[in-house]
Amino acid sequence: MAISCFATARESVKYKRALPPAHFSLKIESFEVLSTLDKYDSGVFKAAGHDWRLFLYPKGNKDDNGSGYISLYLSIEDIPLNKTVDVIYKLFVHDKSRNNYLTIQG
């Protein structure tokens, strides 16, 4: 898939792509209940023709120096080891008590 991309002085990025955007929403009703777990697995979801999972560590992933933080991982499930997939993603975490969003883009 070819993507043309350029950035302006304000760091905005514009690009064209062949595939439409895909999304997945995970709503957590009670972070207090979720925080009793070491790891939460969203289960498999489909996006852009691939199977994905979202892993959430409510207390942080200690194996990745994440203790004391929320750790989020996006994992592709159905790709052979010798193939690559280029991905542009954004993760939004809504902080209900402060009514704002943490945004992570990769």
UniProtKB/TrEMBL annotation:
Q: Which domain of life is it from?
A: Eukaryota
Q: What InterPro entries does the entry give? A: MATH/TRAF_dom, TRAF-like
Q: Which residues form the MATH domain?
A: 21-106
For this protein, the parts annotated as crossing the membrane are none
What Gene3D superfamilies would the database entry show?
Apoptosis, Tumor Necrosis Factor Receptor Associated Protein 2, Chain A (2.60.210.10)
Provide the protein name: MATH domain-containing protein
The species this protein was found in = Eucalyptus grandis (Flooded gum)
